[in-house]
Every structure is written in C-alpha cells, then in structure tokens.
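Task 17 of the worksheet. Students: predict the tertiary structure of the chain below and write it out as structure tokens. Keep your answer in the requested format; marks are given for formatting as well as content.
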Amino acid sequence: MKAWQSSSSSSSHRMAKTTSSYSSSAAAAASPTTFIDTSTTTHHHPSDGLEILSSSRRRQLLLQVPTMTAIVATATSIATIMLSHNQVCNAAAAAPGMTADSARDQWKQAATVLNDLLQNWSTDKWAEEVGGGDIIRTQLGTQGATSPLFQIEKAFKVLRDSEYVDDFIEFQETVDEFIEALYRADSMASSSNNKTGSGKQTSPVVFIEQSKDEVIKMQTIAKKLTNQIK
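Model answer:
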C-alpha cells in the first residue's frame, strides 16, 4: 500500500512538473522576445510619421549645409550671367516690328542727313558755341533720338537678312566700316566740347574738323551701302 502511494505521489509530481514546463513554453511562444536597438533613438510623430534623425545624422547634414549653399550660389551666379548675356544680345537685336521696308526707308533718310550735315557744316560757328559739338552728334544720332541715324545698326541688321541684300557678307563688312567711322566722328565732336584745365588746350576747331573728316568717310561708305541695297 505504501509503495503504491509513493509511486502515485512521484507520478503526480512528474505530471505537475511537466505541466509547468509546458505552460512556460507556451507562454514563451505566445510572447516572443523583442530586441530594441538602442544605438539610434527613433521616434515617429503620430500625425505624419516623419522620422526625427539621430544626433550624429543631424550633425552630418549640418556639415553639408555650407556646400549646398555654395552650389546654390554658384547656380544663381551662372543664371545671372546668362541672363545678362541674353539682355545684351536682345539690346543689339532688331527693333520689334521693324520690317525690311521700314529699315530701307530709315537708311535713305539717314543718307540724306549725312549729305545735309556736310552741306551745312560750320566749323567756326560750332567751335565758338558752348557745346557746339553736340549739334554734330545730334545729326549723327549719338545724342538724342531725332536723327534717322539713331540706332541705325538695327536697320542694318534687318536689311542684311532681307531680300534687299544679295551679298550679306560684303554688306556686313561695309556696315562695320560705316559704324566705325560714325563712332570716330562722334568722339571728335564730343572732344570739341571739353574745355577744362588751365594749360594750353587743343582748339575745338581741330576736333570739329577731324569729326568732319570722319563724316566725309561716312558719306563715301554710305554710297557703297546704297548700291548694295536693292
């Protein structure tokens, strides 16, 4: 009888131990171990889910800010240069709405102004007047906008690309000669107005006569241009 009770007690103890082990295993299976990486602390905003970067990552991005700023500044400078370049090119382009016919009419009037300027040239009178050289410059279209020679380069550009000019290369070379003479004539006329300083100065007469020489060259070149325009 005692042997059965001892055996029965041992069996009950083993069953209880087995049941306890099974319960522990089941609890472990139901609750798997969660490993937390503490090297980087990450939080998620409940509304947008954006990640707040670790301090090391933030430092890395902050170090990149000067470089990114320099890149943006360089790109802005390039864009400004390109814009400036385009503005210069647009300034030299033909006037909006100018046609080949209106450009040819402007040139005819400009050639007439040159002839009238030389025919009515008055060196002594202009030399005595204050700012007498400006009379020449006004006719040349370099002061004010009343002369048909004002911005004559735009009319030349339209004519060069029109059906009125057969040899546009020869025409452009002649135009360059004309514009160079025009600028020299304008420079001499402007110099005749300068009367500063106490030392011996070049007489305005000298500059006005030099300006006249350039206008005469302009008249000669103008005849070539007229012949090149149909």
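Marker's comment: Confidence is low (pLDDT under 50) at residues 1-51, 72-92. Residues 49-92 form one domain.
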